[in-house]
Amino acid sequence: MSINIFIVDDDESVCRALKTLLMTYDFEVKTFNSAQSFFATVDHDDPGCLLLDIHMPGLDGWEVQKRILASGSTRPVIFISAEKKDDATDRAIKAGAVGFLQKPVNGQTLVDLINGVKD
Amino acid sequence: MKNKIIRKPRQTRVILPEKPKGPLLNIRIRNNLEEKVRQQTDELKIREGQLKLGADREKLGADREKIAEEQIHIRTKAMESTLDGIFIIDAKKADFPIIYANPSFFNLTGYSKSEVMGKSYFLLYGFDANLRIVEEIKQTLHQGKSFHGEMLNFKKNGEKYWCLLRIAPVRNAKGIITHYVGIKTDTSLMKQRDSEIEEQREELLHVTRVGKLAEFVSSLAHEISQPLTAILSYAQAAQRMLKDREPQLREILQYIINDDQRAAEVIRRLRSLLKKNKPTFETLDINTLTNDTVTLIMPHITAKNKVIRLELDSNLITIQGDRIQLQQVLLNLISNSLEAMEDSDSRELLIRTSLKDADTILVQVKDSGCGIPEENKPKLFAHFFTSKPDGLGMGLSISRSIVEAHGGHLEAENNPDRGATFYFTIPIHMKSDR
Question: Which of A20, B205, B312, B391 is the right S-S partner for B237, CB 3.0 to 4.6 Å?
Fold first, then answer.
């Protein structure tokens, strides 16, 4: 059974590239350029792992994660950000995320993290 | 009074030639006698008046002398009491001897009266003084001009002090310079305060510059990381798609991946080099902070011919914050306002602190400048957005992130009449979720 992956990143090129990469691993990938369009399209209980950018106009990654938790959803979230704050990983884990990866992301590392969620 | 007394006898004399002359000798004699008595009485009266006048004059003279004496006394006292060192030089003697110096002069220089009086003024400078300036003073005085300057002086014991010196020539009725009067003011404290303010300003500017650079690099890193992410993912995807085919192409893809990661590493290192200082939180009074910041930027405001009005709510509660960072925010908002008012005839900039509610402090910076054009509003706080020809577009975005790190918000709106107001809030109790 393949895992659904949702990617939310305001950079279209990043979305397309990650999707291309993850599809070679046989994941089902859907991309969104904003958190708003993600929430509008995907229900809280639709299964799937969320790859979430942090710095976005409108709702940022932290806010999105808060909303997901508040809705009672158990969707695994992996933050992917260009930002490397020393405490970002800690903060991501504390916020209930599965992990935090810094851009540019190595494909295999990402896939291992996603597969870790599955287990 | 003088005129009245003199006029009276003259009138009497005018009457005299019209004395009645007639056969009645007795009567005439008697009349003459009466006339004489009257005349003498009058003369006596006049003499008495003259005597009185003399006494008045004498008294007046004595009074005047007394007043003059009092004035001299007061002036001398004032000269002896003032905290400025005052000295008088005899200009007619070639070596410029000091003929008077007040107590403050002795205090200031550390020399005693006997060491100063009659000695050449220039000898007091000793060997430590800046000889070029001493020579300049000499030249100025020789040319009969006034000297005005500030210099480092040395007391007798070698102690340094900053001295504001003014020497002016004193001329006699013929316009010849007879003396020079000099005033020495110790400006060490003012200098020290000035240099402290200058130091603080430098520190703040340095932090601001470093902060801007760090934010700039951080933003740049973010912008470059995005395409690097895409390139890496595409290359890795292509590699996987090729599986065991096209080994040469797979090798090329590997080079792309390696170089992508090399570029990413450069950015990572650059970023860690310019790591932003972590905020150091301390207890702060926003009003004090505002006053301090305004003091720092005051010369700039005066130079631009603008004025700052402060409306500081005295009932504010202290907050926890990073002093330098919050000063940076205020400084940035004030500078922006000044620039917005650059071509404006309005001069006033208002800074207001108040309690927004029981738990939040509000700081407003209100200008009367050009305001914010509607199309700029959405991008105002974005990285790299600037409306200035030489701006980096970092100031407001940094300010906003600083305020947000303090748990507050930074916003802007146009005023109903003219100009814009930038305002930020700082909660009194920091929320602990960040």
Answer: A20
pLDDT greater than 80 at residue B26:
no
- Best probe of the A interface among B220, B233, B267, B381, by most A CBs < 10 A, is B233
Q: Which CATH number fits domain B191-273: 1.10.1040.50, 3.20.170.30, 1.10.287.130, 3.40.50.300?
A: 1.10.287.130
Whole-prediction pTM: 0.54
Instruction: State which fold the B82-186 domain adopts.
Output: Beta-Lactamase (3.30.450)
Q: Given this structure, which CATH class describes domain B282-427?
A: alpha beta
- Give B161→chain A minimum CA distance, Å: 50
Calculate mean pLDDT across residues A108-118.
86
Smallest Cβ distance to B225: which of A24, A103, A108?
A103
Backbone angles phi, psi at B301, to 5 degrees: -65, -45
Nearest CA in chain A to B238: A21
Strands B319-321 and A4-8, bridge-based pairing:
unpaired
Q: What is the ipTM of this complex?
A: 0.88
pLDDT digits (tens, 9 = 90+) for B176-188: 999 999 999 999 9
What is the pLDDT, as a whole number, of residue B134?
Answer: 85
> Residue B23: its pLDDT value, please?
47
Q: CA angle at residue B382 from B380 to B385, to 5 degrees?
A: 70
Q: Of the candidates B230, B237, B264, which has its C-beta nearest A14's C-beta?
A: B230
Q: How far apart are the first and last CA of chain B?
A: 94
